Amino acid sequence: MSRSGYTLPVFACAAAVAALHWLHDRQPLTLASVDLIEPSQIAEIPIEQVAGLSENTALAIARSDPGDNLDLTRNTPIWAMVEWREEGEEAVIIQGGEGIGRQMNADDKPAIYAYARRLLQENLQRMLAPGEKITVTIILPEGRSLAVRTSNSAFGVVEGLSLLGTTGISQPLSTPDQLAAFRAELQNKASRFESLVFCIGENGLDLARKLGINPEQLVKTANWLGPMLVEADVLGVKEILLFGYHGKLMKLAGGIFHTHHHLADGRREILAAHCAIAGLKSPDIQTVFHSPTAEAALAHLRSLDASTGSDWVNQVYSAIAETIDARSQEYIQSHSESGTEVTVCGSMLFDRDRKIIVKSKTARLLMGKLC
């Protein structure tokens, strides 16, 4: 049985709790209690070190433990510096220090997302007396070097890691028991809704919420899209919106329904084939095919559109989205034993700046119902 752990925001919060405790009591905590909020339970997080930096400032260090998840932040130290302040209306101000990434598409704001902010705000405000105000700075000393090994830059996060997540529990994403956990969530939501949204990762979940989709209709799939589509059909789900980063989701257009890059990666072939069918000239097809990433290929198509007034992005990606829909229907049909009408699929793809590139015809209809 795989061991679950906690997500990065939990350790950041634990360090902040320990630092604030020191400011109040001048005593170091060895364990910090954190209310995870999602789910509703208390986690006891070991604190490695606590130090007072001045009368008004303290620093505490926790260390990431994601359980058996394949997570490169394992054992990385997370620092939280908490400082008393006199001015301002907010009781708790949260800042990103060294190693916390910046969001290029959001005015360089620190990459500290909604769940992390809520976790810090709620846990720390409970510890403050009326009128007390603090500034919290989260620091990941190894964040900048670790970020080079992630896909964060593909989502516009640079110079560090993001405090991203929608829950405090970190589950192993590539193990069969994680698939069982995803299926359990799907079964729960399928019993309440006929239309669901499948998101591969946290970026999709976060963006879907911002678009106004009911969070209760969002289902995380990680790379298990094939099994989850079949399960949804068995459970009688009528409609599924496939919502994801184009570099992942386009794999479905090539019939690849387990999207982990270690298993299969036909992105450049899929893009180049759709470019050829759309009538793109051979030198440009070559450029697309030899692009190092899907994002670079998209950038080339966008530059062609900008310089020639063409519509290649829309033509190529509309075709890919329609192919994703068709291949998904075929996949479900091939695994369906009922012989009755199968789940309808629509697809919606976004880019590194989390901007929507395309919605298939079915996706447009589904969005009308979901928002």
From TrEMBL:
Q: Which SUPFAM superfamilies match?
A: CbiD-like (SSF111342)
Q: Which domain of life is it from?
A: Bacteria
State its Enzyme Commission number(s): 2.1.1.195
- Any GO BP: methylation
**Pathway membership, UniProt:** Cofactor biosynthesis; adenosylcobalamin biosynthesis; cob(II)yrinate a,c-diamide from sirohydrochlorin (anaerobic route): step 6/10
Which keywords does UniProt give here? Cobalamin biosynthesis, Methyltransferase, S-adenosyl-L-methionine, Transferase
| UniProt catalytic activity | Co-precorrin-5B + S-adenosyl-L-methionine = Co-precorrin-6A + S-adenosyl-L-homocysteine
- Give one Pfam family, short name only: CbiD
**What would you give as a GO molecular function for this chain, any one?**
methyltransferase activity
HAMAP family on file: CbiD (MF_00787)
Family of this protein:
Belongs to the CbiD family.
- Name of this chain's protein: Cobalt-precorrin-5B C(1)-methyltransferase
Q: Which organism is it from?
A: Desmonostoc muscorum LEGE 12446
- Whichever gene encodes this chain, its name is cbiD
